[in-house]
Write a structure and sequence with these properties.
By secondary structure, the protein is mainly α. Helices cover 84% and strands 0% of the residues.
């Protein structure tokens, strides 16, 4: 497998993380480098870890996880998206949308939910003879890290201009992503 093919796979896997990172940026009143770095690092790590797990654990195990992964991603992303919609409609929204309310547990759940599809990619790596899995997961992790950093920054630029509407948009994006995962499973 060529480096170009690995980069294309990595970009494809990073798109969900990028979209979710935008929603995390929506929730920051002021861009916080520590939180932005944590989000990007966690998303990049999760996207790199899942293919490694898929590759190393076995095809049967990943088929079981993959079978339910879309449902898990739908539930987690939709739950957080609905919560964002509800929070955006509260009277004290502007007070709650600030760096002090950064939720590490939510970020971890989002990182896992957006990287479950990477588990299946890892399984396909086990069928490819000419692939260096370590190089592949490093490329996936770095590209996801970069996309996630930009996603948070882009999302944060919108919050200053659009306030609670960006929170609503972020919630809708998460619900749409979750629905996409579910539809992929059903179709």
């Amino acid at each position: 497998m060529s480096y170009l093919e690995l980069v294309i796979i990595a970009i494809s896997l990073a798109m969900d993380s990028f979209a979710v990172a935008i929603t995390k940026g929506f929730k920051m009143k002021v861009l916080n480098f520590k939180h932005t770095f944590f989000i990007a690092l966690l998303f990049g790590f999760s996207q790199a870890l899942m293919p490694f797990l898929g590759w190393s654990l076995s095809i049967q195990f990943s088929k079981n996880i993959q079978q339910f992964g879309h449902i898990i991603a739908f539930i987690v992303l939709s739950f957080i998206g609905v919560k964002m919609l509800i929070d955006a409609n509260k009277d004290d929204y502007q007070d709650k949308v600030c760096d002090l309310t950064f939720n590490y547990q939510e970020t971890i759940l989002l990182a896992i939910a957006t990287s479950i599809d990477a588990l299946a990619v890892g399984v396909t790596f086990s069928f490819i003879v000419n692939i260096n899995v370590i190089v592949a997961i490093i490329i996936i992790g770095i590209i996801t890290f970069i996309f996630s950093m930009f996603g948070v920054v882009i999302g944060n630029k919108f919050v200053g201009k659009f306030g609670k509407y960006s929170q609503v948009l972020g919630g809708l994006i998460l619900i749409i992503l979750g629905s996409k995962f579910l539809l992929q499973q059903l179709l």
